[in-house]
Inverse folding.
């Protein structure tokens, strides 16, 4: 699966992976772009998604200007963000994206994870690695 990194939402994307932080045990909706803020607000009200570390929630919004699928991935509390949390959360989200059977996905790069480019690459590589069979 090909994963692209972007800072803006595009309707051309089939699958969007969107990292979310927790604030007071609820998803932090303040940092989200306007197009998906309504979707996240509904998740907060329903309390089905808490945005805990590596927690995922997939939404099919059926809204013009949004991708077909949005995978929200929880990163836990903003103050406690670590390299390992970013790596594991992105790996979990990419696994979820692969289940949707699309050839490409887009990872939304938010400012808080922008400082971990190597970690982002490692996590995508971990999921896309295929063990080759050797013939002897």
């Amino acid at each position: 699966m090909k994963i692209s990194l972007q800072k803006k939402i595009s309707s051309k994307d089939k699958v969007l992976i969107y990292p979310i932080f927790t604030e007071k045990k609820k998803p932090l909706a303040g940092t989200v772009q306007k197009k998906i803020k309504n979707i996240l607000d509904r998740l907060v009200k329903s309390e089905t998604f808490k945005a805990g570390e590596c927690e995922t929630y997939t939404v099919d919004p059926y809204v013009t200007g949004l991708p077909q699928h949005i995978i929200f991935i929880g990163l836990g509390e903003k103050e406690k963000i670590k390299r390992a949390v970013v790596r594991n959360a992105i790996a979990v989200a990419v696994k979820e994206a692969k289940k949707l059977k699309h050839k490409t996905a887009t990872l939304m790069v938010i400012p808080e994870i922008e400082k971990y480019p190597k970690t982002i690459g490692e996590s995508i590589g971990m999921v896309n690695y295929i063990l080759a069979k050797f013939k002897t």
Remarks:
- The chain has a mean pLDDT of 85.
- Residues 83-99 form the longest helix (17 residues).
